[in-house]
Amino acid sequence: AITVLDSRGTVRIPAAIIGVWFLGPGTDISHRAVELLGDTGTSMVWVGEHGVRQYAHGRSLARTTRFLEKQAALVTNTRRRVEVARQMYKMRFPDEDVSELTMQQLRAHEGARVRRVYREMARKYQVVWDKREYDPDNYSGGDPINQALSAANVALYGVVHSVICALGLCPGLGFVHTGHDLSFVYDVADLYKTEFTIPIAFQVASEYTKGDDVGRITRLKVRNEFADGKLLTRIVKDLQDLLSVAPDDQMVLE
Q1: Across 211-237, average pLDDT
Q2: What does the alpha-carbon distance between residue 30 and residue 27 come to, in Å, rounded to a whole number?
Q3: What is the pTM of this model?
Q4: What SS3 state is found at 209?
Q5: For residue 251, is pLDDT > 80?
Q6: In whole angstroms, how far apart are CA 140 and each of 1, 33, 200?
Q7: CB count in 10 Å sphere of residue 163
């Protein structure tokens, strides 16, 4: 068993019944505990508070490569790859017919729709909005709304990355995004930005006063939004649908 100690006391948990450990800030774990979890095939993910960042992981929950094989088969077939990209777009914007659009056209439509969402949120929250700007080397140089968007999206990427790794999928094999080791993370995260991170970011920016730590405030709001675990369940279901996971494959996750 794994012995867990915290301020509330000590509890021993049989390692074989654990699906995945999410290890948050301040966690210390012994070599022997990791060895035991490895022997029982338990997945470990080192995350930020409430899983809003993903730092590292060890072994997926999947006991088979069928998920990864499906992802690889879809992403390496031009026609099927575009079909998945269309499905992703329809999940975000169900009112638009994209059945005949090419990948290039999909990207153009997506960019236009997201810019429209930015403008709508700016009007709703009375935030001055110009355009999306992100400089990874100069985060503090951005205005409050761009800082908030960056912080919120990073938190979302952590949650999505954790789920992808837990399912044994490859974070780098994206359908819309390509050429980055987190391309698939960005693909999947895009499914939820207009619902979660963009509204949160504009709300934070609308309440901004000089001296506020925009990044911290945003991360806390995102953390509270995701803390009930419903998004984790939803991501798993959406990935199963996108990759057309068969019922016998789903049993791997039970």
Answers
A1: 91
A2: 10
A3: 0.77
A4: coil
A5: no
A6: 45, 40, 19
A7: 24
Q: How far apart, in whole angstroms, are the C-alpha atoms of residue 235 and residue 232?
A: 5
* Torsion sign (Cα): 94, 97, 102, 108: negative
CA pair distance 119, 130, nearest whole angstrom: 9
Are 146 and 187 contacting, i.e. CB atoms less than 8 angstroms apart? no
pLDDT digits (tens, 9 = 90+) for 1-17: 889 998 899 999 888 88
Q: Is the pLDDT of residue 123 over 80?
A: yes
The amino acid occupying position 250 is Q
**What whole-number distance in Å separates Cα of residue 62 and Cα of residue 35?**
18
pLDDT in the model for residue 254: 44
The secondary structure of 146-202 as a DSSP string is: HHHHHHHHHHHHHHHHHHHHHTT--TT--SSS-SSTTHHHHHHHTTTTTTTHHHHHH
What is the token pair recorded at 105?
Answer: 């056209």
CA-based R_g, the chain, Å? 20
| Most trustworthy range by pLDDT among 26-35, 133-142, 199-208, 238-247 | 199-208
Q: In angstroms, rounded to a whole number, what is the distance separating the alpha carbons of residues 47 and 147?
A: 21
How far CA 243 is from CA of 6, 66, 67, in Å, comes to 40, 11, 8
Q: Which amino acid is at 36?
A: L
Which pLDDT score, from 0 to 100, does residue 77 have? 95
